[in-house]
Amino acid sequence: MNQVTPPVYQSGFGNGFESEALAGALPVGRNSPQRCAYGLYAEQLSGSPFTAPRARNERSWLYRIRPTVAHWGAFEPVAMPGWLTAPVAPAAVPLGPLRWDPLPVDEAAGLSFVEGVQTITTAGDAHAQAGMGVHVYRITQSMQDAYFANADGEMLFVPQLGGLRLATEFGVIELTPGEIAVIPRGIKFRVELLGGPARGYVCENYGAAFTLPERGAIGANCLANPRDFLTPVAAYEDREVPSRMTVKWGGVFHTAEIGQSPLDVVAWHGNYVPYKYDLKRFSPVGPLLFDHADPSIFTVLTSASETPGTANIDFVIFPERWMVAENTFRPPWFHMNVMSEFMGLIEGVYDAKTGGGFVPGGFSLHNTMLPHGPDRDAFEAASAARLAPHKLENTLAFMFESRFPQRVSPFAAAAPQLQAEYTQYGARLQRHFDPTRREAGAP
After folding, report:
1. Going by DSSP bridges, is the β-strand pair 243-249/252-258 parallel, antiparallel, or unpaired?
2. Any bridge partners for residue 159, and if so which?
3. Which residues make beta-bridge pairs with 135?
4. Helices within 249-323 (DSSP H only)
5. What 3-state class would DSSP assign to 61?
6. How crowded is the C-beta side of 253, counted as CA atoms within 13 Å?
């Protein structure tokens, strides 16, 4: 069902929001009155334990035509073989860096969102509420009178091709490549196309909810600013039509036929809400004199673990930005990392992979303590470049980084898009060592 008017948003992150589609639908002074206005039901949706500290307590009150239990039909398990949930036995893949070409969209003909999700990696254990699943979605048709809720984790959408309309219990979110959206766990929604077929990435976060990272010495400004995050306003559906509800719970999909739309929230207030963010509003910081700063300065959102400073997931982007450091190798350096890194490319060229093979819609995996770094073309060009101020343009890459090793799915391990030669790309780097010359050698 297409929206006649464009969606409306509120700005801010983690605030206590409120919204009503009918005047007076929100009760004043009490969350659960004896009788709600308009004959609505009051329902609380909690995204954290009741006794979580105030700063980390997440919940929303919903005032709806029917409570969720009335949208609960006779559920039966249904197979979704493309969508896996950790823990998953690892598939056999070469030990080293891995990279894939984009998955073709035409292979997804006739698939809506839930059926069009394909798992690439998993990490941790969803049952222990730790780790993540990384998926690629390919959609060629909108969900019609069909709805989905994920009880296993919140979902971070990163579109790469085509736009999406996410009709949620809280209102409508539209997003296009260069924007992201987060749907917290348990929230019901429908995915529609904004035009033609769509492809993108989804991070299914089993752990602590995404939040803004601490800025530390950066201080009060830059990176992602709270005011740039947008939450929808109430836009309910009162539709008495045969519909299908699918719920993902414990790694198993369950489907039931219901008699109406479950997106029937007329008013709501709270801080457990879906939201979107335009990545072009991210304000990067970097080295102004010399050295290459750690990629943590590009963190947009983070999911904390019980170990301070060690993320369950970091969502990191590499946007357009100025490079000004002197006497410095500017692209990412060669390194090995205790964190695992899944990287995707939304547009343009990534500055550490200029030799081809990493294209928009593609993705790579540099797993825990496995070596990686720039390819030969990027290394030689950056080593010989004139170090004048230079702006990286037409580029937007991202990374899902986790403290957990990522296990490659059987589909991804067998996919023809897996680049067999990438595991050994370091073999193309030339030897420049000369013990008779102390000055810096040139490639």
Report:
1. antiparallel
2. 200
3. 119, 202
4. none
5. strand
6. 17
| 8 A C-beta contact, residue 209 and residue 303 | yes
Mean pLDDT computed over every residue of the chain: 94
Range of the domain at 149: 74-262+273-278
Compute how many other C-beta atoms are within 10 angstroms of the C-beta atom of residue 211: 14
Mean pLDDT of 122-144: 97
User: Residue 190's pLDDT is what?
Assistant: 98
CATH number at 101 reads: 2.60.120.10
**What is the sign of the dihedral through the CA atoms of 198, 199, 200 and 202?**
positive
The total number of structural domains in the chain stands at: 2
Residue 43 forms part of a structural domain: no
Residues 320 and 254 in one domain: no
Structure token digits, residue 354: 């200029």
Q: What type of residue is 305?
A: S
Asked if residue 118 and residue 245 are part of one domain, the reply reads yes
254, 292, 390, 432: which one is catalytic?
292
Tokens representing residue 2 in the block: 């297409």
Please tell me whether residues 235 and 363 are part of one structural domain: no
* Number of H-type helices and E-type strands within the chain: 2, 28
Please give the biggest Cα pair distance in the chain: 87
Task: Report yes or no: 305 and 312 within 8 Å, Cβ to Cβ.
Answer: yes
Helix (H, G, I), strand (E, B) or coil at 391: strand
* Residues facing 299 on adjacent strands: 316
CA nearest neighbour of 315 among 132, 64, 152, 162: 132
Active site residue 292: yes
- Provide mean pLDDT across the span 95-108: 93
Q: Which helix (H) or strand (E) holds 323?
A: strand 321-323
Residue 438 is predicted with a pLDDT of: 83
CA-based nearest residue to 275, from 136, 132, 168, 178:
168
The closest of 167, 257, 152, 272 to 202, measured between CA atoms, is 152
